Structure to design on (226 residues):
């Protein structure tokens, strides 16, 4: 009898493992609300596909990443993402490329990509970069000062940043493991949300006076992600 119970336990464990390994594909947008009327439906996890017979080289091509971008803005950086919106052939391929220009002492502020990891290479200048691990890992800070040719990886979902500590501009290129990795800039989302988060909530969370939160919420929060 004990042998039968043991065997049954193994079967249940095997089934649980099988179910755990099967999951829905990761979403490529923030949310997807179900609708009953198909005429009101939009695409999900990508875009509608062109007939493969009609595809051509231009569907897989983009030009212009050699051109420096304008960094005259409050954060001193400009992110140019080459994603599925610019290269239609990226649809379903799960990759994105970005050029990031940094003014002297400019930064790509703390942010996260909810749907993709990032690998960054510096091609000009110097960058101080880093990411913070999860609460479960003790919110450890991982940082490096990168020179030309150096590479750094930001794991999916981790809050990360880049800062140019020099008097000269810097340029980096980044690859992301999603055709639409998404970007959540921490300050923008917390203090510039639409509509505003109740300042009592943020005052308690940040352990500061309410007037500090209200002042931050009145600021203009610039989006450097183009």
């Amino acid at each position: 009898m004990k042998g039968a119970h043991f065997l049954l336990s193994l079967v249940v464990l095997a089934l649980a493992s099988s179910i755990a390994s099967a999951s829905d594909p990761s979403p490529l947008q923030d949310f997807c609300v179900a609708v009953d009327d198909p005429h009101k439906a939009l695409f999900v996890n990508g875009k509608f596909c062109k007939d493969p017979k009609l595809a051509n080289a231009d569907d897989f091509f983009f030009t212009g990443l050699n051109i420096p971008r304008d960094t005259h803005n409050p954060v001193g950086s400009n992110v140019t993402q080459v994603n599925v919106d610019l290269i239609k052939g990226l649809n379903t391929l799960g990759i994105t490329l970005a050029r990031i220009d940094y003014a002297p002492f400019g930064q790509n502020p703390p942010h996260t990509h909810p749907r993709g990891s990032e690998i960054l290479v510096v091609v000009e200048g110097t960058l101080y970069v880093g990411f913070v691990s999860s609460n479960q890992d003790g919110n450890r800070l991982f940082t490096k000062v990168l020179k030309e040719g150096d590479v750094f990886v930001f794991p999916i979902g981790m809050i990360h940043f880049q800062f140019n500590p020099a008097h000269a501009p810097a340029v980096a290129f980044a690859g992301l493991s999603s055709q639409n990795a998404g970007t959540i800039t921490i300050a923008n989302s917390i203090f510039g949300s639409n509509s505003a988060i109740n300042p009592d909530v943020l005052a308690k969370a940040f352990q500061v006076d309410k007037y500090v939160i209200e002042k931050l919420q009145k600021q203009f929060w610039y989006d450097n992600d183009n």
User: Anything to note?
Assistant: The chain is about 20% helix and 25% strand. Confidence is low (pLDDT under 50) at residues 6-24. The two ends are 66 Å apart (CA to CA). The first strand starts at residue 77 and ends at 82.
